[in-house]
Amino acid sequence: MKYKVLIATMIAVVMVFSVFAMVPLSSGSQANSPALSGPSAAGFNDSIHTHFKNNYGAKLMYNSTTGMVMGKYLTADFNSSTGVFSNVTYNLTSTVLISKMYSNGTSIKGISSPILRFSTNSRTAYRIGNMFIMMNSTSFYVLHNNPTLESNMMVNGNLTLVVPSTANISYSTSNNTQVSISANNSLNAQANSNVFGNANMADHVMVNFNNTINAGRQMIVIDNNGTIAMLFIHNGNFKITNNTITISSNTSSGPVLVNMVAPPGLQKISNNSMVLSNIIHGRISSEIALNLVNGTIANSTINYNSSTHFVYTGKSSSTTSFDINSTVNHHTIVAVFIGNNVTKNTGHAYVKFDGRIATYVSMSTLVNETSSTHAYYSYTNTSSGMYVFMYVPHFSNHTMVVSNTPFHNTDYTEYYIGGGIIAVLAIIGVAAYAIKKRK
């Protein structure tokens, strides 16, 4: 009899602990917060080298003899004698985006670089971690070897980019309210000679520790057979002649700042024309691209609309999570590219918005949606990952979870309640059984 009671009690304990087993657990790594260097230039080299080598960095190689710049995502040639870049290639699609890139202009007196200041090497071209840096008295280039091929160029004069003959060039100079005046002016203010001698400014603007690009009012799109690159221009003007883009600084207000990025989700997909059109017309306000690089999530953000704050918050084995808020109340669309090495690509995407399952619609329906109450999503399955678009009907603070498997129409509380009921019934049954046996 004692053994039967003991066995029954053990069964009850197992049933109680089963309640906890019913609660889903998160797993996997989260994106590390980039550590910014201080306002002093001291230790600048060590700071960026450590950060990009051990965190986001896919290490870049530079042969100063041949001029070859080579990495997992970026390949280019650099002529240290002339300062000309050739055949800037996006390796994920094996496509040349820029055939030739160079600059000329007026020297800035008293230039003092936080990068060069502590180096004994007199050359102006360096490889640090996953970055290639080139600088002289008129120009400052930082090319990143990351999945978005981010590059930042600052020139006191003219920046010339020659694209392949197979590429198409389009542009937008819209003054619509999708890019706030204050944000645009702030970026223009950053594009001045102070960046050359200010380590903190170089962190944020050129080295870009937080891997975030903010679009300006002037955007140029390069499309070479479905491989897309975007140029965002701050504090300058541009001219397009055939396959040559010339970007010039304003004489009275300092150097021009140019950001280049190749969003992973836009590469060689069937609906990239539709996506680009909705970016240009302000319907898509922000985009996050997630890829696993050296065991760490590389999180790159492009803010097309400065009023939207879109943040990656973490992942599990099958989900990725985000927070969204905005300074405006009208609806918008945000986009997420999730690389195949982040979560398994099952060919389908499922989205929860503020804890509720969102409704799937076609992309053409999504971009024309105007609801102020219902959340919708769409997605495009690509060879390198899943491209998800979320229609946000209104703004306060919101959460978004993307999964590669269907959500159950339940939440954690229901798991607790259901499991608790089962456990209680089991305990009652065991107790009744024991009492009956004693009788």
Descriptive notes:
- The chain crosses the membrane at residues 415-435.
- Keywords: Membrane, Transmembrane, Transmembrane helix.
- The chain has 439 residues and is an alpha+beta fold.
- The protein folds into three domains: 2-23 and 413-438; 44-262, Beta-galactosidase, Chain A, domain 5 (Distorted Sandwich), CATH 2.70.98; 272-407, Immunoglobulin-like (Sandwich).
- Helix content is 22%, strand content 38%.
- It contains eight helices and 28 strands.
- The protein has an eight-stranded antiparallel beta sheet with strand order 1-2-3-4-5-10-16-15, with no helix packed on it. An eight-stranded antiparallel beta sheet has the order 6-7-8-9-17-14-13-11.
- Strand 15 (236-241) and strand 16 (244-249) form a beta hairpin.
- Helix 1 (2-21) packs antiparallel against helix 8 (412-438).
- The longest helix is centred in the C-terminal third of the chain and has 27 residues, at 412-438.
- The protein is globular and about 65 Å long.
- The chain starts with a helix and ends with a helix.
- Residues 9-42, 116-123, 175-199 and 411-420 have low confidence and may be disordered.
TL;DR of this structure?
This protein is of the alpha+beta class and 439 residues long.
Describe the secondary structure blueprint for this structure.
Elements: H1 2-21, H2 44-56, E1 61-62, E2 68-70, E3 74-79, E4 84-90, E5 95-105, E6 125-128, E7 131-135, E8 139-144, E9 151-155, E10 157-162, E11 167-172, H3 181-190, H4 194-197, H5 199-207, E12 212-214, E13 218-224, E14 227-234, E15 236-241, E16 244-249, E17 256-261, H6 272-280, E18 284-293, E19 296-303, E20 308-315, E21 319-326, E22 332-339, E23 350-353, E24 356-357, E25 359-360, H7 363-367, E26 376-381, E27 385-392, E28 397-403, H8 412-438
Helix pairs in contact: 1-8
